Blast:TBC1 domain family member 24
Amino acid sequence: MPYHRSGDASAQADKLSGIVEESDLYEGFAPHVETSEIKTLDFYNLPKPSGKEPALRSYTEIQQLLQQGKKRDVKNILRENSWPINSPIRAQLWPMLCGQHLTKQQMLDGFYWEMVHQVFGTTELSEKPIMLPAFVDATHCLPYHLTSTGRAVADRIVNVLGYDCPDITYSPVLYPITSILLHFMSEEEAYMCLAGLVGSKEKVFINQTKLQHEVTWKTVMQIAKKHTKSAISYFQRICPGLKLERVFMDWCWWILAGLPFQHLVRIMDCYFHEGIKVLYRVALVVLNLFHKECQSNNEWSPDNIKNDIGNALIKFCKKIPVSPAKLLHAAFSIRGLSTQYISRIFIKTEMLLKSRSVLNSGSKQLIKSRSSDNLPTSQSQVNIQMMSHTLTIRELFTLWSWLPVRITMYQPVLLYTTEEHGCSLTTFYVRVEQHEPTLLMIKTCNNEVFGAYCSSRWFERNVKDDKGQRQAYFGTGETFLFSLYPERAKYPWVGIEGDKDLGHSSELFMAADSKMITIGGGEGQAIWMDENIRFGKTDGCKTFNNPPLCPSGDFEIRVLEVYGFVGI
C-alpha cells in the first residue's frame, strides 16, 4: 500500500516519511531504490565547506523565497548548491519545485489512488507486468537504480498519467523522469510532480506530441550550430556525409541515458524549476567537451567515432571528465542563450514544420479532414449561429480552415460578447484571461469583420520576468490576424517565412493593461481597443506585415466576441 507524509514539514520523518531505516549514507533515497548500486562516496565525502564557502541552503530557506515570489533567487541557489546525491532535501524540494507549475485546481488527498483504482480496479501493485501507454518509448524505459518494485510503480504512474492526460500522444522522456523522481519520493508524490510538469503553461518541461519532440531536437540543432560551431564543423569534417539530424534526434539521451546518475540528479535540481532550457544548455556543454576530448584522447579519435557519432556521444557522457558542479557551471556560463532567444528559435522551427507538413501532404484526404471531420459539430454550428453577431457559418468555416490543426479537434465556445456582458475591459479579462488560445472577433459600425487568433492567455499581461518587470508584449508566432468582410485574408506572423532574425519589432504579438489591448506592433498597431471597448484603430505592423484591417483605420465597435475551445 502507499506510504504517506506526516503533517510536520520540518521533521526529519517528513523528509522521507514511510521509508524504512537505512544507513546514513543512503538516508535520502526512497525504499524502492537499489542503493548499493549508487556511487555516492566521491561526492558525499567532499571536504566540509571552509569559512569562505557558504553552507548548503536548506529546504525551508528555499520554500520561503518561493513563497515571496523570489524565483530568481531560487534559481541561483539551485544552480550553486551541490547537495550530495543522497541528501534528504530532495524529498521535499522536488515536490515543491514541481508543484509550483500545477495549473489545475489543487488535487484532493487520495486523488491519485482513486485514479489507480479506476484504471486497475485495485490499489495493490500487480506482480505481473502491465502494458505501457503508446506514448512511451519502449527502448528508453530507463529505471536507473529502481528495484523491481520501483519499476512496477513507475509503470503504474505513467499508465495513470496517460489515462488522466489523453492529449499526451508521444513522450519518450516521461518514463525516465518518472524513474528519477521515484528515487526520492513516494509514488503519489511522483505523480503529483509529473502532473505539474506536464500541465505547466508558462514553461516547457516534457514534450507530449511527436511534433513537439521533433521541434525540440531541431531547436537544439539550430542552437548548437551557433553556440558550438567548432564541434559541429569538426564532426562534419571527419564525416563528410554526416547528417546532423541523425545525431541530434537523440540529444536528450546524451543526458538521460548517458550521464552518471550523480550528474543527472543535480541537473534535475535546476530542471524542475527552470524547465527544458537547462537540458539545452547541458547538451551544448556535452558537445564542446566531447569535441575537446576528441582532439586529445585516442579513445575518441576520428576512426573510432566517425561511423556513429551519436552513440559515441552517449558513451562519452558515461565517462564525462567533469564533476556535476563543473558541468552546471559551464552550462550556465553560456552567453546569449536567453529564454526569449530559445523561444524564438523554437517557434520558428515549429511553424516551419507545420507549414511544410500542410504543403507536402497535398492529399485530398487531408483537405477533407480539415474541412469536415475537424469542423465544429452541427450542434456547435447551431449554437454559434444563435449566439454570434459577427460570424456566419460560411465565415466560420473559412476561419476554421486557418486554425492550427490541433485546435480544430476542439469545439468553440463563446466566452465573451459585448452584447451580453457589456463593454468593459475588466469584464473582458475576468471572462477570457485564463483561456488559451482565444479567437477575438470585431464587427464595426460599418459592418467590417476582422480579428485575431491569440495564442497565449491574456493573463500573461501580469507575468513578471526574472527581474520582476512586467513584460510589455507576450504571445507566440502562432498568433495571426484575419479579415472576413469585406476582404477575406489571413495575416500570419512574418517569422514563419524563414530563419532570418527580423528583430524585436517582428515579435510584438499581444499587449494589454487596464486601459487598452493591442495585437501586433512595430511601426503601427494591427488592432488597438480602448478600455470601454468602444473605439479602436488598425494600422499595418511589422509583426504580421498586414495592411489596416479596415479602410478608415479608426473604427467604432458594434460587437466584440471572444471564443475559447472546450477541452484544452
Observations:
- Residues 412 and 565 are 4 Å apart (CA to CA).
